[in-house]
Design brief:
- By secondary structure, this protein is mainly alpha-helical.
- The chain folds into two domains: 84 residues, Skp domain (Protein Binding, DinI Protein, Chain A, 2-Layer Sandwich); 77 residues.
- The chain has a two-stranded parallel ribbon.
- Helix 3 packs antiparallel against helix 5.
Length: 169
């Protein structure tokens, strides 16, 4: 947090020190929410996430039921049958954990879907911001949506609508 404040303070102080750099800001959250294809992609990813979460929760519920069933009947089971049931429970739990990793892990299906649907739109926004910065001669454009360090920004320096315009929205 201190590092972010120091960076913002340095950016604010540079023009006062005579360096004359120009700075602006954008709100990528605002920009993305104005893009219909982003909203649609976000809805698809959210729907898929809920579906995956439901499957994983059902798997854990099934394992929990297996444990309860085992606990209620274990006194009636032979040692071999107990061991077999315990192994079935462990296998079922591993299967659910593997499913969770398959869906939500670093290389999981949800991450891949986000990269497929959302990343191209984010890349377009980044390119438009870069173009606005280059053409406007800005030394830096700060994203107020991504940084909690910007406590105030004048609407005069907000280039969000310019980025949207450059993107054709």
């Amino acid at each position: 947090m201190k590092a972010k404040i120091m960076v913002v303070a340095a950016l604010v102080m540079l023009p006062l020190l005579g360096f004359g750099q120009k700075f602006a800001f954008v709100d990528t959250e605002y920009i993305l929410n104005k893009i219909a294809s982003y909203k649609s992609a976000r809805e698809q990813v959210d729907k898929l996430s809920k579906q995956y979460q439901s499957e994983v929760e059902q798997g854990y519920a099934d394992v929990e039921k297996m444990v309860k069933d085992y606990q209620s009947e274990q006194v009636l089971l032979t040692p071999e049958m107990r061991q077999k049931k315990q192994q079935q429970i462990l296998d079922a739990e591993k299967k659910v954990k593997d499913l969770q990793e398959k869906y939500f892990g670093r290389e999981g299906a949800l991450q891949k879907k986000q990269e497929e649907l959302i990343k191209p739109i984010q890349d377009q926004v980044y390119q438009a911001v870069k173009d606005v910065a280059t053409e406007g001669g800005y030394a830096a454009i700060i994203d107020v949506a991504a940084s909690g360090a910007v406590l105030y920004s004048s609407p005069r320096y907000d280039k969000s609508d310019e980025v949207l315009k450059r993107m054709g929205y």
